[in-house]
Amino acid sequence: MADMTQHFVEFYSPGTFVSETTKKPIDAWDVDRAVEMSRSVSERYGATPYGFRFTTRSRGPDDLDSKETARGPMYYLGGVVRTAAEVLAGTDPDERILRANVKCNGYKRIIVNDNSWRFTAALADDDIVLPLPAAPMTDDDMIEAMARAICDEPNQ
User: Fold this and answer.
1) Measured on CA atoms in the order 145, 114, 70, 5, is the torsion positive or negative?
2) pTM here?
3) Mean pLDDT across the chain, nearest whole number?
């Protein structure tokens, strides 16, 4: 069996408890192509990607299965970056838990992305926020997405 290498792009969308993911093959680690591909990804309840990451999997001639041989940084599809100082200086009662998490975990920066459902996370030093305009969903968009998800999902 010959050596094999395949590149992938994994899209991350807001989920109920953890992020929903969709992994697709891609010819190369091409950011512009991944951004274009992200527009066709839709998860449960109409959630759309807040970001993506590239990986490469390889298999040698004696390997039974492939293994991840390269992993890129997280690329966020727009969003607002806030420093720890900005978060900790806030007084919004709805951000009380966010302030506690930033302080207790020693986060330097966070990202808030409203591409679909709001997503907030710590921002790693190597993460990249692409300068895309945030396009928050309107209430009508959310209602329509939920109706599609409910009507399109089979009863369980």
Assistant:
1) positive
2) 0.79
3) 88
pLDDT digits (tens, 9 = 90+) for 111-155: 999 888 899 999 999 999 998 754 555 667 666 666 665 665 544
pLDDT (tens digit per residue) in 21-43: 999 999 999 999 999 999 999 99
Q: What's the 3-state SS for the chain?
A: CCCEEEEEEEEEECCCCCCEEEEEEECCCCHHHHHHHHCCCCCHHHCCCCEEEEEEEEECCCCCCCEEEEEEEEEEECCEEEEHHHHHCCCCHHHHHHHHHHHHHCCCEEEEECCCCCEEEECCCCCEEECCCCCCCCHHHHHHHHHHHHHHCCCC
Residue with tokens 């207790």: 104
Kindly report, residue by residue over 80-93, the tens digit of the pLDDT: 999 999 999 999 99
Residues 6+ apart with CB under 8 A from 92: none
d(CA 72, CA 29): 9
Distance (Å, whole) CA 91 – CA 55 = 40
